[in-house]
Amino acid sequence: MNNLEEIIGEKPTIAHLGTTLFFMSDYNRAEKYNKILLGQLPPIHDYILLIYINIGDAYLNRGNYFTASEFYDKALSIATDLQPNPHIYLTLTYDSIRLLNNKLNDSDPKLAAIYNNIALLYTELDNNDEALSHYRKALELEIKFLPSNHDKIGTTYNNIALLYRNKRHYGEALNNYEKAREVYLNNLGKDHPNVASVDHNIGDIYYKIGQFDKAFDYFKEAIDIQSKFLSENHVDLAKLFNSIAAIYCDKENYDKALEYCKRTHDIQSKLLPKKHPDLATTYVTYGTIYLKLNKHSEALKYYEDSLEIMLTLYKDDHSDLQSTYDAIGEIYFTIENYEKALN
């Protein structure tokens, strides 16, 4: 310990110190030593992730599962940024999460929070099936031990719905959003922000399945609630205005669609950074409206503005990025610029 700087400079030693103490079952010293290392290393050091895992493992083996899950979450938050082999770091983190999962006893009501945390970790790993499984375990405990209208139950229903939405299982998503809404209404009242949020989510599901009138009703209800406690230029209202614009576009009421799209953009352009994903979404809505109006140059401009933002935010296989490329290609094909359409 007196030669800490020398130890830190020797990568093999750093990699094995916490592990050695761990296998000696000296979990207190494993935690203590790794926390000292954590304080000494620069924030971008390669071994920060290993230290997070070592500390998490120390808590895990002393039965402090929630704190263990928090350190695994920290490891996960940096795993994908570590090069050249991020999948190796993800695998290490995944293995520790699996060990945590094997330790849990479903009879303890305190484990609901841990299951929720593990579900979040799996969501960040894009493992929706495991995330869904753990949210269900959390929900089972919450229903068993909490009052039926507790807002934590509503939040878990909402998280489950989001996973189903991501999997495009819209019926299951809608069912869980409606359960979340019922809990929020009973516990928080009809004018609470959580109710507005879930109304927006329900409206989005109805929009995706083509039931535009129902979607419109839920979007308007969300606007009515949020208008009571948000300023008229709030970004959350802007998102709802954009959703209304999309419905008017699909119902071929393009004047109204442009009106709401402008209201959205007026708010976002004042409050959000130029590369914000919400602006990219608004530009897509603008592009879609102008495309349906056969105003190809205007549509192309907005789709390309959206693409410029998305390229700074998303990986190449992101669905929003792909759909924007498709829309741009469709425009070039329509105006008979086949070379650019193919590109």
What is the string of helix and strand elements? HHHHHHHHHHHHHHHHHH
DSSP strand content: under 5%
- Largest sheet data: none
Number of strands: 0
Determine the fraction of residues in helical runs and give it as a percent range: over 70%
* Gyration radius, in Å: 24 Å
Number of helices: 18
Q: Tell me the overall shape.
A: globular
Summarize the structure.
It contains 18 helices and no strands.
General description of the model:
- The longest helix has 19 residues, at 170-188.
- The chain has 3 domains: 7-84, Serine Threonine Protein Phosphatase 5, Tetratricopeptide repeat; 104-229, Alpha Horseshoe (Serine Threonine Protein Phosphatase 5, Tetratricopeptide repeat); 230-342, Serine Threonine Protein Phosphatase 5, Tetratricopeptide repeat.
- The protein is mostly helical and 343 residues long.
- The chain has 18 helices and no strands.
Question: Secondary structure elements and their pairing?
Answer:
Elements: H1 4-9, H2 11-23, H3 27-40, H4 48-61, H5 65-79, H6 86-103, H7 111-124, H8 128-145, H9 151-166, H10 170-188, H11 193-208, H12 212-226, H13 235-250, H14 254-271, H15 277-292, H16 296-313, H17 319-334, H18 338-342
Helix pairs in contact: 2-3, 2-4, 3-4, 4-5, 4-6, 5-6, 5-7, 7-8, 8-9, 9-10, 10-11, 11-12, 12-13, 13-14, 13-15, 14-15, 15-16, 16-17
